[in-house]
Amino acid sequence: MRHPSPRTASLAAASLVLALGAAACAGPKDSGDATSGAQGKPQKGGKLTVLNSQPQTDFDPARLYTSGGGNVPSLVFRTLTTRHRANGAAGAKVVPDLATDIGRPSKDATVWTYTLKKGLRYEDGTPITSGDIKYGIERSFAGELSGGAPYLRDWLIGGAQYQGPYTAGADGKKGKGLDSIVTPDDRTIVFHLNKPEGEFPYLATQTQTTPVPKAKDTGTKYEEHPLSSGPYKVVKNENDGERITLARNTQWSAKTDSERKAYPDTIDVRSGLDSSVINQRLASSQGADAAAVTTDTNLGPAELAKVTGDRKLASRVGTGHFGYTNYLAFNPKVKPFDNPKVRQAVSYAVDRTSVINAAGGSALAEPATTYLPNQKSFGYTPYDHFPADATGNPGKARTLLKQAGYPKGLTVTLTHSNAKDFETSPEIATAVQESLKKAGITVKLRGLEDNDYKDKTKNAKTEPGLFLAHWGADWPSGGPFLAPIFDGRQIVKDGANFNTGFLNDPSVNKEIDAINKLTDLSAAARRWGALDKKIGAQALTVPLFHPVYKRLYGEDIKNVVISDWTGVLDISQVAVK
Q: Which of 184, 389, 402, 439 shows its CA 20 to 30 Å from the CA of 299?
């Protein structure tokens, strides 16, 4: 994921632990249902409140960097395809949204054709056309509306040079479109790509494929009142997404949208809140908070311990899995990590049990020995090239160090962020430090402020030899997971570089190209899994753990759906009555 994951772990403050303890003793008000507010037949009506810590800024489909149409945004913005709104692995499937199918490829997967469903309308009653989707994509190329996913710019013919419809072309005229997007009629749109891309149906879930009528485009002010194609419309957007009020879009029809349920009458989205306050409000579930959810705020270890001690609170915790891997990254250009045996020694020495404990325990993190997440849609293929007990294998590590020319051990530096999250935190760095010490590897910790950490670890010129890293998928497939990290042609010497191991293996690059030609997503997944296993043998990373998301929801919430695509509660399915 080229943007940081919004799935932030909430670290419990002492005051919150006390507050949750009080809530656990008293318990939420008796709803007559001892199991969960998620039980009972969902009905239309009522108001849903969303309490989030991450700001919902730039509420414009061109600027949003989302997977599967996002969560709050997907209530307003429909896309060509979308994620299936189902629990677990079933929710990792791509399905039609505005289009009649997930796309019809040419033989070599360089041309993709979509037909829009009949009867699609905006909130003002005007019809949605293929030309609107073309224009919506084109405006996402404008510098003024930057921030969205980069794939269309990379994949469309002429995309790398296109500057959007607001910039004058060579003829001095504004409004020029992209010739690689063709709309032969109002219901057909055709994409011409510069290389085979069998995963284009996944890309078509991105909010950039949201229709935007040119006549209603107000540029950077469009976010204040974007024209809805989904079940809800924006009534008010305060302070750049700090509070967004949504109401029903009466022009939306469930006949054209089998995915979104749209149970509540109104939705009140409040962002930028303190994570501890969010969890306290959800635990107490008083007043409007009884019909509240969060889509980005986890329970931290101490909070979770308090919540699980109360049966009713525990029944209101949703568990989610998202394609995300936390790992140690090596820079083979920096000694001693240019020696494969040293990298292998570190791989054997890591004590994943202590790392997982530092990340909050087994309820919040699962051990990883593969780079790809342990989900079928990614092509997960179990392997462990450097097998060790749950607490590591320091003996094997010492043997490899001796073979590498370090019989007395060695000293290395581990770079991490000082930010208090559970991905690259000092606690995890300390756990790694202690486990490597058993193998004779002395680890000096180098903690950086978060922005400095990101700048240094994503710059080819300043990348450290060993550092904590993480990667999340833009959609549930091996493509956006393996290619940015291991495709040698994506090494960036001046700019944001994600190929931390500087791998440029012709056989790996060739296999990536071959998989990209496959339009059978299941067959592609199997190939991604095999490629992951092949790359893993080079010990360019040490997979540590996959996060698990634990989130509270209010006691009046019903129809909780959490897919493996997002790992968070899907508010398009939630009912409050």
A: 389
